[in-house]
């Protein structure tokens, strides 16, 4: 089910005062919010938003998060959140991320999230749900 086609979204965010620590840099836990911003932007662009998934009777909780911190970002700086869908054969959604400092293009962080599909009863879906099969076909990701 691997595909050469890559679905990528890029969005911008500016570091708010509430996101920095006493050193004036983004507190490490706040980067998870930027990843969420990236997923939401990706979902709006490609029709894989949380409301789209919810309307299909599904939930997609994150079950794995890997983050590699590279550089710091401070209050008032802007970042670009690059979110890339990873086509995998298992019934899950995987995204890779790069957060770049807008001023110089330096990579601040790389990350990966894995989400699984739960039906409306909270049961794990072991195969691709129909909604996701149609979404993959629509975007040229079918096996």
Explain this structure to me?
- The chain is of the alpha+beta class.
- It is built from 3 helices and 5 strands, in the order E-H-H-E-E-E-E-H.
- The protein has one domain: Thiol Ester Dehydrase, Chain A (Roll), CATH 3.10.129.10.
- The protein has a 5-stranded antiparallel β-sheet with strand order 1-3-4-5-2, covered by helices on one side.
- Strand 4 and strand 5 form a beta hairpin.
- The model has no long low-confidence stretch (mean pLDDT 95).
Strand and helix layout:
Layout (H helix, E strand, L loop, with lengths): L7 E7 L16 H16 L3 H6 L6 E8 L8 E9 L5 E10 L5 E10 L13 H9 L5
Antiparallel strand pairs: 1-3, 2-5, 3-4, 4-5
Gist?
By secondary structure, this protein is an alpha+beta fold. It has three helices and five strands.
List key phrases describing it:
alpha+beta; Thiol Ester Dehydrase, Chain A; five-stranded antiparallel sheet; 5 strands; 22% helix
Radius of gyration over all CA atoms, rounded:
16 Å
Give the low-confidence spans.
Answer: none
Helix and strand pattern: EHHEEEEH
The main sheet orders its strands as 1-3-4-5-2
> What is the level-2 CATH architecture name?
Roll
Q: What average pLDDT do the residues reach?
A: 95
Q: How many domains is the backbone divided into?
A: 1
* CATH top-level class: Alpha Beta
Strand content: 25-35%
Approximate helicity band = 10-25%
